[in-house]
Amino acid sequence: MQLMNERRELILEELITVGTVYVSELARKYQVTYETIRKDLSDLEKKGYLVKCHGGATLKQGAIEHPFQIREKENASLKKSIAQKALTLLPDNCSMIIGTGSTTLELAKLLMYRSGFKIFTDSLPVANTLISSENQVFLFGGELRNKSSSVYGGWALSMINEIQVDLCFLGTDGFSNLTGPSSPSSSDAYIDKAIIAHAEKKYILGDYTKFNRKSLYKICDWRDITALITNNLADQAQVAKLEAKTKVILC
Amino acid sequence: MQLMNERRELILEELITVGTVYVSELARKYQVTYETIRKDLSDLEKKGYLVKCHGGATLKQGAIEHPFQIREKENASLKKSIAQKALTLLPDNCSMIIGTGSTTLELAKLLMYRSGFKIFTDSLPVANTLISSENQVFLFGGELRNKSSSVYGGWALSMINEIQVDLCFLGTDGFSNLTGPSSPSSSDAYIDKAIIAHAEKKYILGDYTKFNRKSLYKICDWRDITALITNNLADQAQVAKLEAKTKVILC
DNA sequence: CTAAAATATTGGTAATAATCAGACATGGTT
DNA sequence: AACCATGTCTGATTATTACCAATATTTTAG
């Protein structure tokens, strides 16, 4: 059972966080016909929240600031575009590990509106975000670090060692002058190392600022990484240099 | 039979916790006709607490703080007094496991202002609360259950089996007519069983309402429990009967 | 590039369910 | 009895959504 208003609010909320919604997907999700979803979209369009287009609708710019809904940080939109790119790499029903970081958290927010994935994480915010989604969520066990809001240590490592997933998405503190991504804490680096060893495809998510930063502990070598996903705001020369070492996905 | 005001308060309470209520569901729950429920909703709408719509009603934004959060607060203060009592049982620097539930969460909030403890938990909200405290916090690993916001399953169990702590504090769904506390889910009950087996002193936290409620799965027998901590609002006769089976700490 | 196939949209209709207004029943009170 | 509060019953009205057929658009294949 579902209230019409409730459905429309949820659609709008999804639209605001994800940017685009599809008629077919919404119809499946809410178990109503296409026509019903279209009426919802038409109504929301009339109210000025979105613009309809073939197959779905997109957020109307300027509508985000409406009092009615959650607002997003300016800064987050860069990270969100990276996360959106990462989303396109996911086969249906695949399993994945999502690491700690602000960009990976954006990915988790987008996954809220997807379903059927098996998602492991060492990050408390990622777990908090995904717990009410229609995905199966697993949290690694162990000691909690305040700074990163993530678990680490032997228990987490041994749990990671017991699984093998399709993909992993990790953040990083930066990789300037380094032959791979880095982390500011050795125990986090150990966790990331273990995660990489237990995923088929390994993706690093990092905006352009990461090109000019680095931390003490190297997580791995670029050759261990399937691809880096970053913005096209990154310096062309730096990107070119990196492309010699690993695949770079721009967005 | 039931008073009208009581019913309306309950409806409002449900609305505040859940966000949406349905006319048909409410009518079934309170055994009155749709028209009666509609009158209830119209009345509550007139008072500004909610917005009616086809099929039910949704919470009015901003109304959350007004209506009778008094009762919620009262309830929370009841739980807090229990948690406060539990605090007095803690030796310095001791280790403990804190289970899932609203009362145990109150305990976690109080522990925010203490330091030097080793605290294990299966509850995400408890971990979220304590992560920025000056205690060492450990989270059990495993699959996340949406409803209780806690982890469960083999990974959690095996991690619990690896430790031995000084005390544990568990919530319960109730224990009327039962020879011990109960839980609504079998997997949660397993977790609680394991926790009890790996703590020296075992405390159950439960306000007086738990005397008249129960769930499907018994966690353990009263003789396995060191003490129940509850309010002195509990019925004297019921308390006396329970005291034959285990220690009862009133506050 | 164009025609055909596949897919999406639109508007109208009908069925189901929810709403509303107001009459009516009940049960306790003065 | 008369009164009031509460809840139920009834029939007319309205909202929501599924279904259908006619168009429009996009994609595919030749």
Automatic annotation (TrEMBL), chains A, B:
PANTHER family: GLYCEROL-3-PHOSPHATE REGULON REPRESSOR, HTH-TYPE TRANSCRIPTIONAL REGULATOR SRLR-RELATED
Single GO term (MF): DNA binding
Domain HTH deoR-type: 4-59
Protein name: DeoR/GlpR transcriptional regulator
Record keywords: DNA-binding, Repressor, Transcription, Transcription regulation
Source organism of the structure: Gilliamella apicola
Source organism superkingdom: Bacteria
Annotated signal sequence range: none
